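go over this chain:
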Amino acid sequence: MDLDELRERACIRLALLLPQVGDPSRLMDECLASARHSFRDEFIAKLSPEAWAHIALLHTTTFLDCGVDVSVGDLVANVLRDSIHLHRIDMLSQDLAQRLAAAAPHAKATPNIRLVHPEDS
């Protein structure tokens, strides 16, 4: 999908999300212009029109609520940062390492760690 078609579809979705806006194209144009400062067109085109409608809505309401123009790049970066759960990544990497170690027939056995309390010695 090219950017013109993406813009057109996103405008339709934005009109459904925010019917009180007469012409959503201005809001979408501002959102996409902000996005183009941070992202290449190829990345922008990979996100769905529905996603861009929601991003445009956030971009607009953030400005109206706070009076500060938060860039789309900053919005997307914060969403990505929040969605990455480092604890979960750590657990998944440990699980993967254990499965790979168990699958390798010639690998050394994983050492068993046992806590020794002072009263045990």
Remarks:
- The chain has a mean pLDDT of 85.
